[in-house]
UniProtKB/TrEMBL annotation:
Pfam families, A to Z: TonB_dep_Rec_b-barrel
Gene Ontology process terms (BP): siderophore transmembrane transport
UniProt-recorded name of the protein: TonB-dependent receptor
InterPro entries (alphabetical): Beta-barrel_TonB, Beta-barrel_TonB_sf, TonB-dep_rcpt-like
Signal peptide range in chain numbering: 1-30
Organism: Komagataeibacter oboediens
């Protein structure tokens, strides 16, 4: 029911000059910054040179080949002129929770990232337009709302790129999360860990990597059981009816054909089951429903469940041919979501509809990126992306008709479509300290809507004086709507029932078209101390937003005819010896006017008001801040002790007042801490290496805070942040 659906060659001089604003948000030990703003790690070479097994390999010198091919792959996708926030492997381990922390928790430590319910994040005032890449290959968008398919422990390092992005980044452009995956060449050996504590939290995991001849491999798997799968709907210490079970697997297999050729396969599986938390004291949908549904439970005893599955695979070929570098990939992703209502007709009693709802999206595609080093002052890059997708939606709903009789209605539809994009750009160095990156991108979509656009983009980076880098850029963006959008063709089936809508109009969700401007500066004050400032402005036509409309936690898209987003960010970090510190704050404003699609999801009075007035978007948060630090005692010894802490502040998302989204949820600040003790060769065994004990505390001061009040345009139930949670763990490397 649609109403509820919710080179062999080193870096060129031009690339070394094109210094992007890069803000390290945690210690950048063993990391260097390339001229394109992408991180490389010297662990790539030091760890590969490991061992007699490498020397016995039938492959060419593995140390040299692996480092060079990794460097060539990074050069395929620079971020010249964009703003890049980097997380090294050490940074990921230092954040409270370490590898056990979700990716959203990690990304909240970057400036301009706002926290929302269901594990969502909002970057620079956009709703959910964040693309994820594994080793430079973009994953198609899936249905997962609060599930985390990608695990932090699978990342060797990652970066968050924002701003006026170069033309190789298309489709989802609020931010690009690029994960450099672990592999068997640089992550040999294994690790097992047990982590858990409060709220039945139980989190065993394992990982193993190795190399044999021309092959290297790495895999990781975990199981998560807890009672905090979805945010609490009340401020209480424990959420009612909130059990979750999640299974994850990720693997990486590579074959080095020769010194210029490598083939890799990345695959992942995620299976998650959730209970939906209840809210007590809710009134029934109709005055006489208590007599019509005497078996219906109280609203605090509903038994609603949701299941999410995601599988994906990426097969890539990387090739070096003289002045050309190439990576071409084919990929597939299957994502499904199923909602089961309360079996005793509780959904019908409290919402006027009880439905089993299912959605699935199958995406298959290809991506190719080529770098041509024409001359020392010119580097040409070009490539394309094509996704073919199949979306299936079906639901079996029970509603009351005008005669107060229960009737069953089946709805369903399927559609096949595609999105595509191709680009060409030139990274030009007209002066020794100036780099210009300019290009064109052509995108199209043929799904629920058929549209296309030619998009110019340009970035200029100027290294004005020692330790300083200034950048400015403009990007034209084209964002196709999420393919899981459901049309309104079945609305008439629910006319004159308890699930009838106030508004019968349902125009097609369109592609968003943006003009995006960005400028900033970074300065190294002292060795190890960086500061940066960045400002941005986005002017949008058919701005895409998403909302939850009903019980199933499924987000559905809609358009504002006009949208404006602007803001600024400040960031600083210090990393020297055993001490690392960072701090970020950001100001943002996101507004929209006139909802022009999927109107049946909204109240008629709200639609009328929004058609004539600008309103804040529901995910608009004026102030966002994060800070943290770590200190390692005995860091030169074999038994270091590390203490770290982080802070996240939000001035509050929007809620309704006398006008839609006119109010602000109360501000909050949460503090987390971590204590980690490591022992090298604790058991004096040649098979057992580092042993690690950890203690993590989330929301140290047990501050109750609200993420969502349950009101606002496209907002579902209330959501509260996690109360104080103490977790401990032990891990053993071998």
């Amino acid at each position: 029911m649609t109403r509820l659906w919710f080179s062999r060659h080193p870096l060129s001089p031009a690339m070394l000059a094109a210094m992007t604003v890069l803000t390290p948000v945690f210690p950048l030990v063993a990391q260097t910054t390339t001229g394109t703003g992408v991180l490389t790690t010297d662990t790539t070479t030091t760890q590969v040179a490991d061992t007699d097994a490498t020397r016995r390999s039938s492959a060419p010198d593995a140390m040299t080949v692996t480092a060079r091919l990794d460097r060539a792959r990074i050069q395929l996708q620079p971020s010249t002129g964009a703003t890049v926030h980097a997380f090294s492997r050490k940074a990921l381990e230092t954040i409270p929770g370490g590898d056990n922390a979700g990716l959203n928790s990690v990304l909240l430590q970057a400036p301009g990232v706002a926290q929302d319910s269901y594990g969502q994040i909002h970057v620079r005032g956009d709703h959910n337009e964040v693309q994820f890449r594994l080793d430079g290959v973009q994953l198609p968008e899936g249905l997962n709302v609060f599930g985390q398919t990608l695990m932090t422990r699978f990342a060797d390092n990652l970066s968050l790129s924002t701003g006026a992005l170069p033309v190789q980044y298309g489709f989802l452009q609020a931010a690009v999360v690029d994960i450099t995956t672990k592999n068997g060449a640089t992550n040999k050996g294994g690790n097992v860990s047990i982590y858990g504590g409060a709220r039945d939290y139980f989190f065993p995991s394992a990982q193993y990597g190795g190399q044999h001849g021309r092959w290297d491999y790495f895999f990781t798997a975990d199981y998560v059981h807890d009672r905090v799968g979805i945010e609490n709907t009340t401020p209480s210490f424990n959420a009612p009816h909130d059990l979750s079970n999640q299974y994850h697997f990720l693997g990486h297999l590579r074959y080095t054909v020769d010194e210029n050729t490598r083939i890799s396969l990345i695959a992942g599986v995620s299976n998650a089951e959730y209970q939906l938390p209840n809210i007590g004291g809710q009134p029934m949908f109709g005055d006489d429903y208590s007599s019509l549904l005497p078996q219906a439970p109280g609203s605090d005893n509903l038994n609603e469940r949701q299941k999410e599955i995601t599988d994906f695979g990426i097969l890539s070929l990387q090739k070096e041919i003289g002045a050309f570098s190439l990576q071409t990939s084919v990929f597939s992703r299957y994502s499904s979501l199923g909602y089961s209502p309360d079996p005793n007709m509780g959904d019908l009693a409290y919402m006027g509809i009880s439905q089993h709802a299912e959605r699935s999206v199958m995406s298959t595609g290809t991506q190719s990126d080529v770098t041509w080093r024409v001359r020392p002052d010119h580097t040409i890059r070009f490539g394309f992306q094509v996704f073919a997708e199949r979306n299936i939606t079906k639901a079996d709903a029970t509603v009351f008709n005008d005669a107060d009789q229960q009737v069953n209605i089946h709805t369903g539809n399927g559609r096949t479509g595609d999105i595509y994009g191709l680009y060409v750009q030139d990274e030009w160095r007209p002066l020794h300290n100036v780099t210009v990156n300019y290009g064109l991108r052509f995108d199209g979509v043929g799904e629920y809507t058929n549209e296309h656009q030619l998009s110019p983009r340009i970035n200029v980076v100027w290294r004005a004086w020692k330790g300083a880098s200034l950048h400015a850029g403009y990007s034209r963006y084209f964002t196709p709507p999420p393919f899981e959008v459901v049309g309104g063709s079945d609305l008439q089936q629910f006319a004159n029932t308890s699930a009838a809508t106030d508004v019968s109009r349902s125009d097609t969700v369109k592609a968003e078209r943006d003009h995006y401007f960005d400028a900033g500066i970074e300065q190294i004050i002292l060795p190890g101390w960086r500061v940066s400032f960045d400002a941005y402005y986005k002017l949008a036509h058919n701005l895409i937003d998403e909302g939850q409309f009903g019980a199933p936690i499924i987000l559905s898209g809609f358009n504002y005819r006009r949208g404006q987003v602007n803001g600024y960010e400040f960031s600083t970090s210090y990393d020297r010896g055993p001490l690392s510190l960072y701090g970020n704050f950001a100001w943002s404003r996101a507004i929209g006017k006139d909802i022009t699609s999927a109107q049946f999801n909204f109240d008629g009075d709200d639609l009328k008001y929004i058609s004539q007035h600008w309103i804040h978007l529901d995910h608009d948060q004026r102030w966002t801040a994060s800070a943290g630090g770590s200190y390692t005692f005995f860091y030169r010894s074999g038994h270091p002790t590390r203490i770290s802490a982080t802070m996240v502040y939000g001035s509050g998302l929007r809620q309704d007042s006398d006008v839609p989204n006119g109010g602000v949820i109360p501000q909050y600040a949460t503090f987390n801490m971590s204590l980690v003790q490591s022992f090298r060769d604790l058991f004096h065994s040649r098979f057992l290496r580092t042993t690690q004990l950890r203690l993590d505390v989330t929301n140290l001061f047990d501050h109750p805070y609200m993420l969502r009040s349950g009101t606002g345009v496209g907002v579902g139930a209330p959501q509260y942040g996690l109360r104080r949670t103490i977790l401990t763990g032990i891990s053993q490397s071998f």
